[in-house]
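How a chain folds remains the central question behind the approach discussed here. In the encoding step, the backbone of a single protein was reduced to a row of integers, each denoting a local shape. We regard such an encoding as a compact summary of how the chain folds. The sequence in question and its structure tokens are set out directly beneath this paragraph:

___
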Amino acid sequence: MKKILVIDDEAALRDLIELVLRRENYQVKTAENGSTGLQILDSFQPDLVLLDLMLPDCSGYDLCKEITKKQAMPVIMLSAKNEIIDKVLGLELGAEDYITKPFDNRELLARIKAVLRRYDNSDPKQSDENTRMKHEELAFDLETRVVQKNGVPISLTAKEFKILEMLLKRPEKIYTRDELLELVWGYDFLGDSRSVDMTIMRLRKKLEDDAENPKYVRTIYGFGYQLGGGSA
């Protein structure tokens, strides 16, 4: 059963979302502010977070960054703000999707299912060998979503994790920016291919000893990105 954490200060909306999600057989916990949400996050370990942009004790943008630093889990932002700049900022800070209030319950469920499909690594048919991979100094665990370099954990956002997963699973493939946009961000993403470049840049800063001369995430000029180095 998938677990969803709802962080929103509107009690009526929070209760409604919880009811809708429980009817779809999701396990749900709720929080009315950011500090409570973070406490629940550590113990609950949700598969997805629904996060209100405007919270009484913190900015949803700041909380989104903090959540995605803790673990590579997807975040869907909820907000009454419908300006494009607000949506793009939320997505650039690590959110997987952005839903404007008021929303239809069917749309909310469809967005949740679409995001979870992109990040669903719980296939029982997967062997331990397929869920745990190594590449030179990197160790990658699909089930726990933990990445280590020389035994030291590296904090990745959900998108950074997904890009690295795709590169590791198909090291021979060169992914174009458009492919990464569709596979990682989704076909209805509001931004452009620069979002891919910015995410790759952040990923390199976390993985590479020298981000200017990347070893793990190579740029194939004129084509896209490919895994670099040799397999361990």
About this structure: The first strand starts at residue 3 and ends at 7.
